[in-house]
Amino acid sequence: MATINMLQAINQALDIAMAEDERVLCFGEDVGGFGGVFRATSHLQEKYGKARCFNTPLVEQGIIGFANGLAAQGSVPVAEIQFADYIFPAFDQIVNETAKFRYRSGDLFNVGGLTIRAPYGGGISGGLYHSQSPEAYFAHTPGIKIVVPRNPYEAKGLLLAAIRDPDPVLFFEPKRLYRASVGEVPEEDYQLPIGEAEITKEGSDITLVGWGAQMDVIDKAVELAEKDGISCEVIDLRSILPWDEDTIVESVLKTGRLLITHEAPRTGGFAAEISATIQERCFLYLESPIERVTALQTPATLTRDNQQNPKHPKIPETSNAPRNY
Amino acid sequence: MTTTARTHQPEFLSGNEFSIPTYAVLAQDGSLHDGAEEPDLDQARALRIYQAMIATRVLDERMLAAQRQGRLSFYMQCTGEEAAVIGSAAALDDDDMIMAQYREQGALAYRGFTFDEFMNQLFGNEMDYGKGRQMPIHYGSRKLHYMTISSPLATQIPQATGYAYGQKLAGEGLCTIVYFGEGAASEGDFHAALNMATVHEVPVIFFCRNNGYAISTPSVEQFAADGVAPRAFGYRMHVIRVDGNDVLAVYRATQRARELAVKDNKPVLIEAMTYRLAAHSSSDDPSGYRSRKEEEAWRDKDPITRMRAWLEIKGWWDGDQEKALQDRLRADVLDTMKRAEKRPPPPLDSLVTDVYADVTPALQRQLDQLKRHIRRYPEAYPRGARSLDPVLSAADHVEDHAADQGGE
Questions:
Q1: Does residue B92 register a pLDDT over 50?
Q2: Boundary-marking domain end, from A138, A160, A185
Q3: Facing residue for A167 by CB, picked from B147, B148, B356
Q4: So what's the pLDDT on residue A142?
Q5: Are B298 and B355 part of one and the same domain?
Q6: Three-state SS sequence of B333-373
Q7: Active site residue: A29, A80, A130, A262, which one?
Q8: Does a structural domain hold residue A151?
Q9: What is the C-alpha separation between A262 and A132, in angstroms, rounded?
Q10: Same domain? B382 vs B286
Q11: Pairwise CB contact (< 8 Å): A102 & B354
């Protein structure tokens, strides 16, 4: 098995999907000959031609509107939004169109073939507008699926699943890990399930839940916590929508404690939804309040992102509190 | 790419250098304008167009009345714009995709959508293809290649560009027509769609119904330019302006646009100059923003009487045929409306289907919880409770419905 980074894994997934089905198209700003500003679509235009991998004008609402039409027609578009921070001009197309296409037509038409890829998250000195984690805005919307991979292996298997999924998928890629996350990835075709969380580490004292780049942060936090004798169970949610309630419920029934961490600001972040659901379903088993470790309720900054973000020491600090509750 | 000559004087252009004429063929008395040529339109197609225009007018008149009687929650009329909508749809291949805004029921009538199908959607009953989810007039039909209507304005325009790009790759020689009003053309999606269409050489026809008003806002407050048509220059797109109440001009222009789109992959913008004779919707009252005199002037340009005059000159239509058609359509509208009103709403379970291809466990839990709740408080949910009662529900479903969901 080859050791590759997350960008290479994403590129492999796109390559496999395009080779397998000529209806698969990749497009977005700078996606064509240049291969994307992060190079996720490198060499795809050379291999599959300009009709199937191409640059679009700089207009996100147009990219997603165009992609919706293509998907309705029966094509399998993989549209890239260059940074998740710039997805908002397409918010209407995603929330009012993509998400409701099947429902409003009574299943006469659907855009299930659509996958929207967007790099998200902080840690690259991106300031306000190259750092955001917008998953919660979309998690409020029935009809779309939201997937966030944590490493190259997950990225390839989940992206292939997203492209072939019968529903439209928003695929948020942790850009801080694009080159930083390296791992063994099978060269062949494989898929990982959408809508299923994964227990990446078993433990008994507390359940830690995250997704995407935050899983790396959780791993560092676990090292600190376990030095203090706290046994952590770690769950990668993987899909924000639909999300795997049962896996978290079962874990919390066992540990009695839950901490959720995400890069997005706290208020209305997806941790709030998980927290509410788990207290509904596990109330009598909880031994301490459910905790959230998130970014501050501020825009992201250039120079203070290290302090405002949910860095790993904040997790054991917070999780010690419930243990002593 | 910009290809431009160099100048050494700071001279500005104002936009007035371009003047886009209005293509017109048919005069109101049914004769042709001097120098105008009749399009290649045979009797069968001409009558199919005319009958769809009458069907649309009859449907609109009756359904607005039904809304006023409180039988229907909402309605939108196509009145005054029948030639623009139906004349253009008739110039296409019946397998071309239609992406409409919401006032284009005439195109659907032309394609063969039945009054039963219209009524089922309007009343949101269990035979509505959209399963009772959308407001009245949000029609759709897969078998007739008519994309289900969505209320947000202009979202369909870039979707049409994408749909047509897929048609081009599929190589089946088909195109997409997308309808919108001059108000919707102010949305960003309009610009995105036209720009992408010429950049990617997409077989799409952008059909703007410039009917003078966006609800109450007159077009002079919508844009300072000479209509919508000049914007095509900014995208290097082929453009034509037509008299939208002139069915022959609309037909010929759209026919030519389709050739450019399908044979040469040149997208086209058509601006049809017309007038919304009716209110914006059943919730609107135009007397608050325009004069009766203005409306009367446009009523004199009615596209249906204009086409009828032409048909009668050709000897293809007469008063007896007109009366027979009108009588039959009026009776059909009433019959189909009565049938549609009696049909029950879609089953409760359809609340959670089609959100995703498969019902998710979380949604199933919500539905189960809702059913328990309705059974506990049936008086608060009479319709829901009735649909959950097997005996009452069976009595409601006396008709045996084929599972034809407008698909294939």
A1: yes
A2: A185
A3: B356
A4: 98
A5: no
A6: HHHHHHHHHHCCCCCHHHHCCCCCCCCCHHHHHHHHHHHHH
A7: A130
A8: yes
A9: 11
A10: no
A11: yes
Q: What is the DSSP letter of B22?
A: E
Residues B103, B71 share a domain: yes
CATH number at residue B180: 3.40.50.970
Residues of A numbered 47-76 whose beta carbons fall under 8 angstroms of chain B's beta carbons: which are they? 51-52, 54, 56-57, 59, 61-62, 64-75
Q: pLDDT tens across B59-88, in order?
A: 999 999 999 999 999 999 999 999 999 999
Name which of B134, B152, B158 is nearest A62 (Cβ-Cβ).
B158
Active site residue A233: no
Task: Establish if A192 belongs to a structural domain.
Answer: no
| Cβ–Cβ below 8 Å for A102 and B357 | yes
Q: Are A104 and A180 within one domain? A: yes
Of A66, A89, A104, the CB nearest to B133: A104
Q: Do A125 and A43 share a structural domain?
A: yes
Q: Which helix (H) or strand (E) holds B177?
A: strand B176-181
Pick from B152, B170, B362: which is nearest to A92 by CB?
B152
CA A148 to chain centre: 2
Q: Specify the length of chain B in residues.
A: 408
The whole-angstrom distance between A219's CA and the closest CA on chain B is: 29
Same domain, A310 and A273: yes
A130 counts as catalytic = yes
Separation between Cα atoms, residue A79 and residue A90, nearest integer Å: 12
Task: Domain count for chain A, please give it.
Answer: 2
| B372 and B297 within one domain | no
Domain with B375, as residue range(s), is 348-396
The pair phi, psi for residue B25, each rounded to 5°, is -120, -45
State how many domains chain B has.
2
Chain B neighbours among A 10-49 (CB < 8 Å)? 23, 25
In tens, the pLDDT along B267-312 reads 999 999 999 999 999 999 999 999 999 999 999 999 999 999 999 9
Within a domain: residue B1? no
Distance CA(B332)–CA(B148), nearest Å, equals 24
In a domain, A193, yes or no: no
pLDDT reported for residue A320: 64
CB–CB contact A167 B191 (8 Å): no
Spans of chain A below 50 pLDDT? none
Chain A positions touching B134 (Cβ under 8 A) are: 104
Residues forming a β-bridge with A241: A146
Amino acid at B77: Q
pLDDT of residue A48: 98
pTM: 0.96
Inside any domain, residue A15? yes
B129 and B217 fall within a common domain: yes
Q: Do B285 and B379 reside in the same domain of the chain? A: no
Contact residues on chain B for A106, CB-CB shorter than 8 A: 128-131, 133, 140, 148, 354, 405
CA A296 to chain centre: 20
- Which of A57, A77, A102 shows the shortest C-beta gap to B196? A57
By DSSP bridging, strand B204-210 and strand A76-80 are unpaired
Which of B202, B354, B365, B405 to mutate against chain A (most A CBs within 10 Å)? B354
Q: Which chain B residue is nearest to residue A72, measuring alpha carbons? A: B163
A230 contacts A319 by C-beta, under 8 angstroms: yes
Beta strands in chain A, from DSSP E residues, in sequence order: 2-5, 24-28, 53-55, 76-80, 115-120, 145-147, 169-174, 182-185, 198-201, 206-210, 232-236, 239-241, 258-265, 291-295
- The answer to whether the Cβ–Cβ distance between B166 and A75 falls below 8 Å is yes
Give yes or no: residues B127 and B263 share one domain.
yes
For chain A positions 142-201, those within 8 Å of chain B (CB to CB) are 142-143, 145, 166-167, 195
B353 touches chain A (CB under 8 A): yes
